[in-house]
Write a structure and sequence with these properties.
alpha/beta; Rossmann fold; 5-stranded mixed beta barrel; 13 strands; binds guanosine-5'-triphosphate; binds magnesium ion; binds zinc ion
Amino acid sequence: MNARNNPARLEGQVVASFGRRYRIELPNGATVECATRGKRSDIACGDRVTLSISGENSGVIESILPRATLLYRSDAHRQKLIAANVTQAVIVLAAVPSFYDDLVNRCLAACEHAGIAPLIVLNKNDLPQSGAAWEALAVYRELGYRVLRLSAKQDVSPLAPLLQNRTSVLVGQSGMGKSTLVNRIIPDAALRVAETSAALDSGKHTTTGARLLHLNAASQLIDSPGLQVFGLHHLSLADTAQAFIEFRPWLDRCRFRDCTHRVEPGCAIAQAAAEGRIHAARLATYHALVEEALRAHAQRYRS
Ligand SMILES: Nc1nc2c(ncn2[C@@H]2O[C@H](COP(=O)(O)OP(=O)(O)OP(=O)(O)O)[C@@H](O)[C@H]2O)c(=O)[nH]1
Ligand SMILES: [Mg+2]
Ligand SMILES: [Zn+2]
């Protein structure tokens, strides 16, 4: 295939992204290695795109087709896209390396904002520390989020049915076992995983790019690189409060309409937290997000 005898634009789906290089799968299953025009980097694994063929097995992405969803994180300067067109995000946790509540809360908030259903999975259930980790996840169960425990090394059957007829992205810190899970569910995937369990307190960042794999015709899985930070600068203050689902019943009861739910008198969120109806760790993440947003705003006006 070359551009001269196939001038028509093709459509395909991004099945791998490494920096600014992308692998696109065509409807017939063939893949094409693609670059972008200029410095464009706003393309995510799972995106549907149009492309033109520029050589043997290589091409250029011309445009991104409208997205159903986009999961991404952002700091004051830029956005980091995680996956496009997913319907579910599987937040993968483990007792070792230890996971951070704050990161879980941020992942959940990103999902709520993006309209993506979250599913929390405590992996490495074979480890003796898993009991305490499972107890620590009670807060998410109480919020109504679905939380599973399993061991990728032993049995992935609790997760497999929940992946059917969905496009799921696995997200989480490095070393939680995302790639191991994908390999167990789709043995052909043969993703690289950290070789030993020697990584004690943090992962090794084994996965460097996102990869989309087909479970069956109606179900896809995207493996993503481990994350350490999850900025949500693309959410307004109001969006941020809405993204904490348990805040919603209280949000129109504060004395001030523009209440940021930190220090204002007559704050219904602060009151609910004082009464034990909102968990302290959830409120702490919310406060951190507001501080980050206000700091970025102040910086923008100073410079
Ligand atoms: N004990 C135990 N170890 C596991 C399990 N699942 C994965 N591991 C180990 O955890 C380590 C990290 O696994 P990976 O699959 O590479 O983790 P990852 O989340 O993909 O990490 P990044 O690609 O760095 O984000 C490896 O040494 C795995 O063998 C499990 O169920 N039990
Ligand atoms: Mg990995
Ligand atoms: Zn308030």
